[in-house]
Amino acid sequence: MHYPVIVKPNAEGSSKGISSDSVVYDRIQLEAMLMSRFKQKETLLVEEFIEGREFTVGILGNGKDIKVFEPMEIVFKDKNHSVYGYDIKQNFQEYIEYTVTSKIPHAVIRELSDMAGKAFKLFGCKDMARVDFRVNEFNEVYFIEINPLPGLAPGYSDFPMIAEFSGIGYTSLIVQILKTAMMRYSLNSYIALSCEAEGGNK
After folding, report:
1. For residue 150, which phi and psi values (nearest 5 degrees)?
2. Which of 17, 142, 154, 163 could form a disulfide with 173 if both were Cys (CB 3.0 to 4.6 A apart)?
3. What percent of the chain has pLDDT over 90?
4. 3-state secondary structure at position 58
């Protein structure tokens, strides 16, 4: 790997344990970071840090019915911040803007969508997932991770925001996720009920 690298907890959600301080620029900084984290008895990941723009792609469905939402860019208001860490997420109104109208070549948008769909199938995900990417200054796309059970907190989590950009309200999104799971289990008798709930409360 080449420096800089980023040090992450191996088993956490919502970017807990990740901040701008998680990026280190040489071996001395890396060793100091690892020694500090090892004292907390954490299992860690060390990955090459990709400078650039951050995108996330939501996926809903199974098999031939998979829907890949338009990639959402996570734009840092303050250029001094470049890591979508826990503290940033807790105060996202202050630090972050979310958009699906990014000034980026259409070919890159298509690559983000295609890679997200392939990752969803490759990792055997079901019903829904969210896939995170970085795009460097040369518009090269890097897969970061896949979230097979992304957060669904209204007004906070990325997945509902992605769906809202596509015109899908929160209640409708939850109903669609349930319908997708029920279809996978062939629970056809319940699907009509979910459709009725969706029609009655968008």
Report:
1. -70, 155
2. 163
3. 66
4. strand
* CA–CA separation, 102 and 73 (whole Å): 7
Q: Where are the beta strands (DSSP E) in 43-150?
A: 44-48, 53-60, 67-68, 72-76, 96-99, 128-135, 141-147
Question: What does each C-alpha distance from 57 to 34, 148, 150, 160 come to in angstroms?
Answer: 31, 12, 11, 11
* 23 bridge partner residues: 6
Q: Strand pairing of 96-99 and 72-76?
A: antiparallel
What gap in Å lies between CA 66 and CA 78, rounded to an integer? 35
Token look-up 């420096």 returns 3
Name the residue among 48, 55, 54, 49 with its Cα closest to residue 72.
55
The rounded distance, in Å, linking the Cα atoms of 55 and 98 is 10
Distance between CA atoms of 97 and 196, rounded to whole angstroms?
35
pTM (predicted TM-score) = 0.87
Measured distance CA(6)–CA(176) in Å, rounded: 36
Q: Which two tokens stand for residue 132?
A: 């995170």
3-class SS at 64? helix
Distance CA 120, CA 118 (A): 5
Angle (CA) 141 98 92, round 5°: 110
In tens, the pLDDT along 4-13 reads: 999 998 887 7
pLDDT given at position 79: 75
Is the pLDDT score of 147 beyond 70?
yes
